[in-house]
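Budget justification aside, the reviewers requested a transparent look at the raw inputs and outputs of the sequence design task funded under Objective 1. We therefore reproduce one unedited record. The lines immediately below are the structure tokens for a 397-residue chain.
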């Protein structure tokens, strides 16, 4: 049987299974999770895509159009598609950016920003119990906020996270400890009044989690800027468990990445591996982040004017390199099995593995082939294949 006939047969089988599982005309196909053991694969996730205002700058770049269209992520059906695409390709959790409203500092009740993917999408989706999530507190964004004091952290913010997220069955808990991360460790320390006070606050956060029925807190700090050593040393001093990167390697000051140019992709991949190896020797364990690109042209070159993007084949090679680096650590702790994909859906900054017009499912298929090599052949289904959609936000065109 040739390749075309094989794909047709697989698609027909997938549609037959959909109806056998009770699927109807409005049912999103159920996920078919693949086994990535011993690796735990997550993707960083940017929850911005629920309004015409958010999508408008991206529409001028049709190659970035997702296979779900210019979707409304507060729609639970959209979330079910995301869960399916993630699980079908080996991604078992999202690390979701979480923002606090700027005018909410020091106040309660907590006023979140961009929480719709979790509360309206995930928590109302059909497949929510099959998928995990955890949050990255984005405390450095100019549109969002950090904390006013330790009291604000311990008596306002942390109780909100415990009740709204940590206690949910879908929240990512490792060794009895919920996973929380913070974007800017420096800002966290500054707002608490220095390293000694921040270290005490972290201990009190862990105690509060134990009082809530957990075994503590897995608290990770983000770093992707410049020399990695001083920030990671600070992370250890205040009691964080792991470091990780939001993105590699555009912000590491690499000489081969001058602004406004397209660097050599071989050097990009070698630079990422250099970052992983360097971070692995620092004060606390590091979680490997695999970055597929950066091009924030739709947002006017926000943060960095560097532009680059790996092809799916290059990304597959990078995933293989990351797998080897993680294997070298010979650890059953998170640093020896957890890998973060950068990014699930950051269309504005130009780093995303979500299926889009230019490369389709290429990035997700690369993840599946490297981390679930025994999964066998599969067919990627889009809404039109099962007469679903469109999911476009209102008022975009």
């Amino acid at each position: 049987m040739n390749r075309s006939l094989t794909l047709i047969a697989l698609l027909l089988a997938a549609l037959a299974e959909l109806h056998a599982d009770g699927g109807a005309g409005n049912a999103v196909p159920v996920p078919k999770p693949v086994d990535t053991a011993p690796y735990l694969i997550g993707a960083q996730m940017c929850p911005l895509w629920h309004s015409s205002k958010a999508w408008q700058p991206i529409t001028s770049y049709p190659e970035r159009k997702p296979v779900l269209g210019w979707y409304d992520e507060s729609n639970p059906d959209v979330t079910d598609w995301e869960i399916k695409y993630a699980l079908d390709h080996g991604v078992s959790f999202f690390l979701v950016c979480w923002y606090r409203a700027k005018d909410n500092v020091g106040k309660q009740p907590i006023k979140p920003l961009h929480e719709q993917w979790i509360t309206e999408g995930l928590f109302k989706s059909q497949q929510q119990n099959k998928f995990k999530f955890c949050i990255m507190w984005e405390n450095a964004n100019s549109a969002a906020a950090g904390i006013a004091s330790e009291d604000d952290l311990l008596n306002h913010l942390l109780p909100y996270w415990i009740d709204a997220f940590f206690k949910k069955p879908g929240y990512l808990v490792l060794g009895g400890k919920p996973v929380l991360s913070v974007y800017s460790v420096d800002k966290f320390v500054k707002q608490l009044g220095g390293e000694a006070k921040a270290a005490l606050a972290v201990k009190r956060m862990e105690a509060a989690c134990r009082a809530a029925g957990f075994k503590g807190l897995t608290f990770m700090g983000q770093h992707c800027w410049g020399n990695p050593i001083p920030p990671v040393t600070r992370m250890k001093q205040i009691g964080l468990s792991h470091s990780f990167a939001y993105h590699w390697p555009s912000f590491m000051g690499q000489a081969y990445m001058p602004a406004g140019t397209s660097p050599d992709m071989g050097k990009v991949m070698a630079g990422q591996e250099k970052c992983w190896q360097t971070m692995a020797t620092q004060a606390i364990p590091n979680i490997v982040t695999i970055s597929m690109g950066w091009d924030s042209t739709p947002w006017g070159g926000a943060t960095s004017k560097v532009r680059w993007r790996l092809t799916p084949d290059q990304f597959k090679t990078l995933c293989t390199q990351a797998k080897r680096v993680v294997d070298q650590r010979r650890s059953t702790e998170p640093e020896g099995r957890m890998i973060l994909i950068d990014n699930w859906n950051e269309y504005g900054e130009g780093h995303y593995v979500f299926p889009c017009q230019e490369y389709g499912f290429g990035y997700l298929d690369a993840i599946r082939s490297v981390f679930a090599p025994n999964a066998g052949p599969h067919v990627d289904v889009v809404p039109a294949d099962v007469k679903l959609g469109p999911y476009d936000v209102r008022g975009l065109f």
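The two ends are 44 Å apart (CA to CA). Residues 3-20 form the longest helix (18 residues). Computational costs for records of this kind are itemized in the attached budget.
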